Amino acid sequence: MRAKHGLGQPWWHGKFRGCGYRITLGREVILDILAKADTHLSAEDIYIKAHAQYPNIGLTTIYRTLDILANLGLIYKFDFGDGRARYELTKGPKGTHHHHLICTGCNRVIDYTDFIDEEVELLRQTEKGLAKKYNFKIINHLIQFYGLCNKCSVKR
User: Fold this and answer.
1) pLDDT at residue 97 is higher than 90
2) Which domain does 12 fall in, by range?
């Protein structure tokens, strides 16, 4: 189920139209796939799911649309070190702020959302310090930790 905003429309409708883009069926399909995803999807993953619903869509359209969506700030594009870009929504049920733990052994990606007060305060102070030091207005951050998950560290 998509997160709704206003008159029964998904939250991203206003952003899309406000930037002069049409909301096409292909774009809606891609955003719907990302809204329902429980993992970080690659363009190829999205293409396979989109093609099943919308056979006329091509992989080039998927890549072009993902670039537009990332530039509009509707999705995040991640590089987890496995040679494939991954995507997720910036808002909605799956788009809550989180960090990533990335296993360099099996490429598993864990979304980390259960922040404790000390972590939140440390990040707030870090952002405040960096903003002051570089005269830079920070609007968001992405943090990725690389290491070995429990299963991979036991194997070694």
Assistant:
1) no
2) 1-93
pLDDT of residue 67: 93
Distance, in Å, from the CA atom of 104 to the CA atom of 87, rounded to the nearest integer, reads 19
Distance CA 41, CA 32 (A): 12
Please answer whether residues 23 and 29 qualify as being in contact, where contact means their C-beta atoms are separated by less than 8 angstroms: no
What is the arrangement of strands in the sheet containing 144-147, beginning at the earlier edge strand?
Answer: 109-112, 99-103, 144-147
Which parts of the chain are beta strand (E)? 4-5, 9-10, 75-79, 85-89, 99-103, 109-112, 144-147
Residues 102 and 81 in one domain: no
The pLDDT of residue 21:
77
Element (H, E) at 140: none
On the question of pLDDT at 39 being above 90, the answer is: no
Helix (H) or strand (E) holding 10: strand 9-10
Global pTM? 0.69
